[in-house]
Amino acid sequence: TPTSCAAMQVETVQSLRAVLPQGMPIYLEETGSTAGPYVPFHDTTGEAAFVVPYVAAMAEANLAGAHWWCASDLYTEHGSITNYTWIPHEDYSGGMPRAEFTGRWGFTTPSGVAKPIHRAFQLLRAAGDTRLAVAAAAGGTCGDTVDVLALQNSTGGGAMIFVSNSGKGICNVT
């Protein structure tokens, strides 16, 4: 689950704080929802639903910054590739995807189409920097897969409330 994944990383950060000089900033590099590329989940609203409770749980780590892997589907990490030429009628050529929505980690497709995860981070950024307390009562058929996060901008204005289901594909929230 997003919160258990975040809990392991928060525990690692706390261990680092015990051995690093007090006040030293810690940055999280290359975090994400899965370890492997070409996972269809990366292109779905399920990953966007993963992001909200994960980011909320990671707030406990009090990081100086974090980097979600990665910004675009146009990347390669398998060493140097000598042939970067496009091969006609192939979904992959030169190590880069040509097809849209191939399950790679990026926030955007090769042609720049924003994936659901991109929109989730966009909304989180716009929501504000002050976390509001919420009491989420479990109900319906979702069990513990529904998370609620409420944020408000510290300069005032309204609040945004995020409700995400990172578990069951279909459930009833009451």
Structural overview:
The chain has 174 residues and is of the alpha+beta class. It has 3 helices and 7 strands. The strands form 3 sheets. It has a 3-stranded antiparallel sheet with strand order 5-6-7, with helices on one face. The chain has a two-stranded parallel ribbon with strand order 1-2. Helix 1 (2-19) runs parallel beside helix 2 and helix 2 (45-58) packs parallel to helix 3. The mean pLDDT is 78.
Shape, principal axes of CA atoms = globular
Helix/strand order, N-terminal first: HEHEEEHEEE
Determine the structural class based on helices, strands and strand pairing: alpha+beta
Distance N terminus to C terminus? Answer: 21 Å
Q: What integer value in Å does the Rg equal?
A: 18 Å
Number of strands: 7
Mean pLDDT over the full residue set: 78
Keywords:
174 residues; alpha+beta; two-stranded parallel sheet; 3 helices; 25% helix; globular
Summarize the structure.
With 174 residues, the chain is α+β, with helices and mostly antiparallel strands. The chain is built from three helices and seven strands.
